Amino acid sequence: MSHALEHLLARGAPRSPDRDSLEAWGKAVGAALPRPAIIALEGDLGVGKTTLAKALCAGIGVPNLAAVTSPTFSLVQQYEAPRGPVVHVDLYRLKSDAELDALGWDELMASAAVLLVEWPERALHTLPHDVITITLSHDATDPMRRVLRVVSPTRR
Fold first, then answer.
1. Are strands 114-118 and 86-90 parallel, antiparallel or unpaired?
2. What one-character DSSP code corresponds to residue 35?
3. Rounded distance between C-alpha atoms, residue 90 and residue 97, angstroms
4. 70-91: b or e for each residue (b if 16 or more CB lie within 10 Å)?
């Protein structure tokens, strides 16, 4: 992991970002990501996981950001990027390991240059040790801000 990415995930991560700060940080993280990389995006419905995914994709270099939407119903979306495909999955609707297998989970993890996983707790036992986990929650004191917590391989 590069020094720049380590900084962004540690002291460089905003603790209570507004939307603009979250997007700027996500774009910077996306630009600094090594390949392959897996990012687990945790948080309640409507907290901004897809907004952060879009910002990460902007930093990664996905040319068509309008295509980056929540894969809640499709479950899997793939976006082309200069250094390999970005696979964006939403596991919210999955109820079992059999459904995870039917999704082609192992192949998705193996083929993606970057894998963005919303609702990663549905596949927690299958994620590698070097996953970057980003948790967003609502800021109880300011509805325009989120609370951001990052756990990366260097910050366990």
1. parallel
2. S
3. 14
4. bbeeeeebebebeeeebbbbbb
Ramachandran bin of 153, using left for φ above 0, alpha for ψ from -120 to 50, beta for the remaining angles: alpha
Pairing of strands 76-79, 114-118: unpaired
What residue type is assigned to position 59 of the chain?
A: G
Q: What is the identity of the amino acid at 107?
A: E
Strand partners, 143: none
Other Cβ atoms within 10 Å of 66 Cβ, number? 7
pLDDT, one tens digit for every residue, the chain (156 residues): 788 898 899 888 888 899 999 999 999 999 999 999 999 999 998 899 999 999 999 999 999 999 998 877 789 999 999 999 999 999 988 888 899 999 999 999 999 999 999 999 989 889 988 899 999 999 999 988 999 999 987 554
Residue appearing with tokens 């993890």: 109
